[in-house]
Structure formats: structure tokens, C-alpha cells
Design goal:
The complex is a heterodimer of chains A (340) and B (65). Chain A is built from 13 helices and 14 strands. Chain A is α/β, with parallel strands linked by helices and 340 residues long. Classes of the chains: A alpha/beta (340), B mainly alpha (65).
Chain lengths: 340, 65
């Protein structure tokens, strides 16, 4: 770790801004584009890109029309001629407008050109429940992109990883979707040293434990850490793994943990059905069949869009209490053949 | 006068071209405002939905998934 223990804490939002600043200072090929990202438009809807256009100029930091397909398309084109674009699709639900560009072009150009070209772009996007933004502005759609060969998907849960994953994503020669959680933007933590990177595909054991492995990322990882007290009160010691990169996921770190605990709960804010948890659960059950102490568990959102109403929205995504309840239930469950 | 607000521009054009009168448009606007006020009042006066409604209306039968 690159922990500067004396340094003042920074928020995830500030860490992403610092990563962009440091990367752009380091490499003139890095450009930023997206809706309202330049300073005349407030440096992003929440200020993630604030200061970049003033510092690096309008040629390198461009606010665009509200046209997601054009944002990603322009980023792809620029990347093909030597730039390293960081494109912002303000909200993850709006990636749907750019799906052709992402799925058919960004993810496939290396393959379809026989390796003669590549698309080193980063697509930043923000999402998550908590702001009452409703079903068209809150979805976690990471499974769609993880399901697309050629794409990489990352989702930090703390400021240091936010910095390190952004630097690594920019350095990566392939397209990376970088998921930012809205309510977590203002969570403080130790800052990363300038130039710090978190290798893509490397998980972090956020907390060690013995009874059950909890695998998560982004907002629900924070909620899982918040569940520790309730789990410990119930006598359950959870090992919590922050996946950090969703695709490719760090099988080695998860395997080592599940080999130790024999139990695994995968938690994400996305709808449980057909989600990232299904992929991990299937992989674990193939590998550890007969050695698991309980069936692999999944905890995500119900099979419904994100509701607007505050009480419904609060009940939608897994929180610390529901994570603790599920982990305790799993940790106290003995392997049986009765289908439970 | 051309202003940045497209709705205002369109309103002026409807009047300029004789498609609607000022009083007709004012009546439509007053009706819409009243409907909005009624909807907001209803929403604020209503209890929050039951948690059982979380998965309602995802599909045609209107029942829980």
C-alpha cells in the first residue's frame, strides 16, 4: 500500500480528480471529454473534473453535447490515432445510449483488426441508489459490460483505490469502464501517493476473517465493512474481499479465501438475477464442489427497477444490516442435501 | 423575440401564426398548473408505499414478480 499516513484524508471524488490531474500532467496524450466536464460548465455535474480545463486547456478537456454515442465514438476515434481519452458518461443508465460504440467498437476493434489496433479509453460513469434519482438514473449495469469480451470493468470503494484504479485504467491498453458510486463520492480516506496504481484484476482483502468470505465492490463493499460489528456480535468472523476489478476478477484471491472459510456470500447493488454474483457463484461451486460448507450465497437487488420512493429505494439495495443477516445465516448453515 | 427557452419560442410562434390565442394558451397553462398542484398535494398527503410494492408493475399482470 501507498498510504501517506500523515496526509490529510481526501474523498473519493477528490481522489479521482487528483488521478486525472496527475495523469494529464504526466502524459499529454490524455484528454477528457463528456457532458459539462470543462470549467465553464462547472467541471462536471458534481465537480469530478473541476480544474482540468483551466489547467490543461480547452484542447484537452472538452464539454460535449448531450450525445453519449458521440462522446464514446469520439473517444474511440481519438484513441485510434494515439490519444488516451477519459470519457465521462454522466450516469450509468446513459451508457445504454452508447452501447453500440462500447460493445461493437471499443470492445471489439482489437480483435477484429487482428491486433493491429486497440482502444485505450476509460469510460467514467456514476450511479447508485441513495439520491432518489429513480429507475432511469440509478442502475448498476456492470454485468452487461463484464459480459462483453474486450471490456474491463473496475469499481473502487475508497479514495486510494479510486486513484490507483484510475491511473491503472488510463495506462491500460484496452477499454476500461470505471464505475463511480454517487453517495460514496464524499467518503474520506487516506490519499494515494502521486503515481500510485492498483493493478487491474487484483482484489484487496479489506478485512481478514475465518467463517465466511464476503465478496463485493463499490458501495456494497462499504456496507459490508459496516456489517462487521453485527456479524461479530453474532460470533461470525467474515473475511471481506473488495474485488476492485469486476472483470477480469481476481479468482486467485477469492479462491484462497473460500478455501479457508468454505463459505461465500457475493454482494452487489445490481439486480441479483443474471448478475456478477451468478458468475462468481458458478465458478466457485465448480471449483469447490464437495468442499463448501454451505451453498454460495448471493445478495443483490430484487428483480425490479430502482424505485423512486425513498422507503422503497432504501429497501432496494443491500445495506449493512441485510448483509450481516445474510452472512450470519450462511455462516451458521451446515452443508446439507435438502436443497437449502 | 427569440430567447433561449424553446418552449417560450414555440408559445410565441403559436400565437404569431394564429394557431392558438393568448387566452387559449393561458387557459391550458392554468389547467396544467392545477393538475400539477393537485398531483403534488395528493403525493404529499399520501402515505409512503408499502415495501411489498417494490416489485409491483414490473410486468403486465401488475403483481409482484
Amino acid at each position: 500500500m501507498s498510504d501517506q499516513s500523515d496526509a490529510a484524508p481526501v474523498t473519493i471524488l477528490q481522489a479521482i480528480n487528483a488521478a486525472l490531474n496527475d495523469a494529464m500532467e504526466f502524459d499529454e496524450a490524455i484528454i477528457v471529454l463528456g457532458e459539462d466536464v470543462a470549467d465553464p460548465e462547472e467541471g462536471g455535474v458534481l465537480g469530478v473534473t473541476k480544474g482540468l480545463s483551466s489547467r490543461f486547456g480547452d484542447d484537452r478537456v472538452r464539454s460535449t453535447p448531450i450525445a453519449e454515442q458521440a462522446i464514446v465514438g469520439a473517444a474511440i476515434g481519438a484513441s485510434l490515432v494515439g490519444y488516451k481519452p477519459v470519457a465521462e458518461i454522466m450516469l450509468m443508465n446513459f451508457t445504454t445510449v452508447a452501447m453500440d460504440m462500447i460493445v461493437n467498437h471499443a470492445a471489439k476493434l482489437r480483435f477484429m483488426s487482428g491486433g493491429q489496433t486497440n482502444v485505450p479509453i476509460v469510460i467514467r460513469t456514476m450511479t447508485g441508489t441513495g439520491f432518489g434519482s429513480g429507475g432511469q438514473h440509478s442502475d448498476y449495469l456492470e454485468a452487461w459490460f463484464a459480459h462483453t469480451p474486450g471490456m474491463k470493468v473496475v469499481a473502487p470503494s475508497n479514495p486510494m483505490d479510486a486513484y490507483g484504479l484510475m491511473r491503472a485504467a488510463i495506462d491500460d491498453p484496452d477499454p476500461v469502464l470505471y464505475i463511480e458510486n454517487l453517495p460514496a463520492y464524499w467518503i474520506p480516506g487516506p490519499p494515494a501517493e502521486k503515481g500510485f496504481t492498483v493493478p487491474l484484476g487484483k482484489a484487496l482483502v479489506a478485512k481478514e476473517g475465518a467463517d465466511v468470505t464476503i465478496v463485493s465492490y463499490s458501495r456494497t463493499l462499504i456496507e459490508a465493512l459496516g456489517a462487521v460489528e453485527q456479524m461479530e456480535a453474532a460470533g461470525v468472523s467474515a473475511e471481506i474481499i473488495d474485488l476492485r476489478t469486476i472483470s477480469p476478477w481476481d479468482e486467485e484471491t477469492v479462491y484462497a479465501s473460500v478455501a479457508k472459510t468454505g463459505r461465500c456470500l457475493i454482494v452487489h447493488e445490481a439486480v441479483t438475477a443474471f448478475g456478477v454474483g451468478a458468475e462468481i457463484a458458478a465458478t466457485l461451486q465448480s471449483r469447490f464442489f464437495g468442499k463448501l460448507k454451505a451453498p454460495v450465497g448471493r445478495l443483490g437487488a430484487p428483480y425490479a427497477p430502482v424505485p423512486f420512493s425513498k422507503p422503497l429505494e432504501s429497501a432496494y439495495a443491500p445495506d449493512s444490516r441485510r448483509i450481516a443477516d445474510a452472512a450470519i445465516a450462511l455462516a451458521t448453515k451446515e452443508h446439507s442435501t435438502d436443497g437449502n | 423575440m427569440i430567447v433561449a427557452d424553446l418552449l417560450a419560442n414555440f408559445r410565441a410562434r403559436l400565437i404569431d401564426e394564429g394557431i392558438a390565442s393568448e387566452s387559449e394558451l393561458a387557459a391550458i397553462e392554468a389547467d396544467i398548473e392545477a393538475q400539477l398542484d393537485e398531483a403534488v398535494d395528493f403525493a404529499l398527503a399520501s402515505p409512503f408505499p408499502d415495501l411489498g410494492e417494490l416489485t409491483r408493475d414490473v410486468y403486465a399482470n401488475g403483481e409482484n414478480a
